[in-house]
Amino acid sequence: GKKVFKIDASIPAKDGIFDDTLLGAFEQYFQSNTKLHGRKGKLSDKVKINYDDNVLTVSTTMRYRKKYFKYLTKKFLKKKSLRDWLRILATGKQGYALRYFNIRDDENEE
């Protein structure tokens, strides 16, 4: 069957952390690093990666685990050194969203 995975990056995009070049790089990273039959970057028509309205959509007829796309997103964030600020959270069965870590000021708690 056909599966659709979504990664919502609208929160960091709204704040300007994910600008247009980074969003393009995000899509390109998925295009070149998603493996099909053990090979990177050789995605046939079985895997389609689209990006619109700050949501990266991976639609595929192949069997992928949702966690694989979480793994790829984490690798991308690490590469762009955004891993300290952003985390990836599940938003249901087929989707993820990029959110901020909840950082509280230590001075206020004392």
Give structural notes.
This protein is an alpha+beta fold and about 110 residues long. The protein is about 35% helix and about 30% strand. It has helices at about 10-15, 20-35, 65-80, 105-110, and strands spanning about 5-10, 35, 40, 45-50, 55-60, 85-90, 95-100. It has a five-stranded mixed beta sheet. The relative contact order is 0.23. The model has no long low-confidence stretch (mean pLDDT about 90).
Which of globular, elongated, flat, extended, rod-shaped describes the shape? globular
Count up the helices.
4
Beta-strand content? 25-35%
Mean residue pLDDT: 90
Total strands: the figure is: 7
- Largest sheet composition: 5 strands, mixed
How are the strands ordered across the major sheet? Answer: 4-5-1-7-6
How helix-rich are the residues, as a percent range? 25-40%
In short:
The chain has 110 residues and is of the alpha+beta class. 34% of the residues lie in helices and 30% in strands. Strands 4-5-1-7-6 form a 5-stranded mixed β-sheet. A two-stranded antiparallel sheet has the order 2-3.
